Amino acid sequence: MTVRKILEEKGFDVQTIGPQETLRAATELLADKRIGAIVVTDGERRVVGILSERDVVRVIGLDGPGRLDDAVASVMTSKVVTCDGNETVHQIMEHMTAGRFRHLPVVQDGRLVGIISIGDVVKHRLAEMENESHAMREYIMSA
After folding, report:
1. Where residue 110 sits, what CATH number does that domain have?
2. Are the C-beta atoms of residues 53 and 82 closer than 8 Å to each other?
3. Domain span including residue 78
4. Burial class (CB in 10 A: 0-12, 13-18, 19+), 90
5. Cβ pair 16, 45 in contact under 8 A
6. Residue 75 in contact with residue 17, Cβ under 8 Å?
7. Could you say which of 7, 108, 115, 139 has the lowest number of CB atoms within 10 Å?
8. For 13-49, what is each residue's pLDDT tens digit?
């Protein structure tokens, strides 16, 4: 299963925010959309960062709620690992495990086209395992 196939099934919609927007605006978007991360993009949908719930909790926990008026750029992760549509679920799992992150922006020709979450990966991996199990049971029963 490839990233492109997952995006075709789940959709290409990605919540984004500009780096100059406030953390307050970002947290409102996270809460309103019930998501765990927002991709930070420039005006041409190039990925310049990612802001996760963990980033927000960490900075508020350390510095207090006054940081909510700071720019997203001051807190976001700016060295973002991305992938493209041709990568497989197994490759994505390796990226997420090695980097210890749960969201991976999908980029094509330098522009953001989607996002894959750990939930997407787990869902599709479980479906693969169920299909393999079903095929094995059918094979055994037909022998």
Report:
1. 3.10.580.10
2. no
3. 3-142
4. exposed
5. yes
6. no
7. 139
8. 999 999 999 999 999 999 999 999 999 999 999 999 9
